[in-house]
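User: Teach me something about this protein's shape.
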Amino acid sequence: MEEKQVQGAPVHKRRVPYSGTHPRRFEEKYKEHDPEKYADTVARVIEKGSTPAGMHIPIMVKEILDFLQIRPGQKGLDATLGYGGHTRKMLEKLTEASGASGLTDEVYIKDDVQTKGDSWKNPEENSEDNSRDNPEDNSRDNPEDNSRNNPKDNSEEVLREKAPEGHLYALDVDPIEIVKTGERLQKAGYGEEILTILQQNFANLETVAKEYGPFDFMLADLGVSSMQIDDPKRGFSYKADGPLDLRLDPQHGIPASQRLRELNREELIGMLVENSDEPYAEQIASEICKTFKKGRSMDTTTALREAIERALCFLPENKEKKDILKKTCQRVFQALRIDVNSEFEVLEAFLNALPEALADGGRVAILTFHSGEDRLVKKAFQQYYREGIFEEIATDVIRPTAEECRQNGRARSTKMRWAIRAGR
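Assistant: First, the predicted structure itself:
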């Protein structure tokens, strides 16, 4: 007899089947996608030094919190919400002694800072690793002066009268992940009294700060989140086949596949050199242009990876070639992602707005993952220090510990810089 579906009963959704004893593809790793239900599995993956599928492990949490010195009653901004790992740790500090944790009110996500009260938005209704280089750091301003590497604790000097619970604002441009993260934080008990999530690019810091600032503490983690990198549908990684997209916000702008067609050989070379210091830029640019001239497409991550392999066919077949190909793919995908999302321009806009966005005595920490980003942050911090806008800045970068790098390989290229706003 044929079974009948009981009206109103939930439809059972079967998990994605996989061959072999262990899932290999992103969508097959159903246990890693549900860390609350399969905590033991997730813990084992992390212990091996890997990042569970669909998750992101926050980097340098202790170093960030030690510097920011977050206290209940303050107002803060997480400029790059992502998976919400840093956000949650900052919220814990913000509610540590205020009794504000455990809130159950709905968190609101706003896609425009002038819009009030917009409720949850479903992106469907609203129509690798980081692949970053780790160059030798030559960023010491004055090796003999370490005073600004250990900021003084001036918490009593900058304490201001505020509502006891404080508030944290968080920005993210990704319409897909922002909803998931908002739901996770709401389930953790952080409601709208303590947390406001804005669907905004952090390039819009000036506008955000005018309405919600100034801020006592700020964090910007410039890395791409692991759940974006690992999802083949987002096209961030050469390791899995997927559409060559690379947009942080897939609802706006053009995908990487279209951007490649717009650039000539000289422009491709310039993009690869400027964004990732690619040593094989000329060979790769020539191969990409040759592919298009033959009438072939480059709409997938696999197609671009194969073009890179063809461009480097002159390399001798030895053990080193595999590693060279891997690192070259990482650099090319990085350079293209930076170009598609205008990442340098976004960072410059953020840095330009930083002085007015910080309250007197306010603290900012920025995590960078490649030399181009770090140079921009270093230059801006030094300029603001010389002008008396910042009273203290880090004289050198802070790096993650060896133990953290062992547990999370994606932390290896991280550099942290910090600054403290002078009084006006």
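Now, about its shape. The mean pLDDT is 80. DSSP finds 15 helices and eight strands in the chain. If you'd like, I can walk through any region in more detail.
User: That's plenty for now, thanks!
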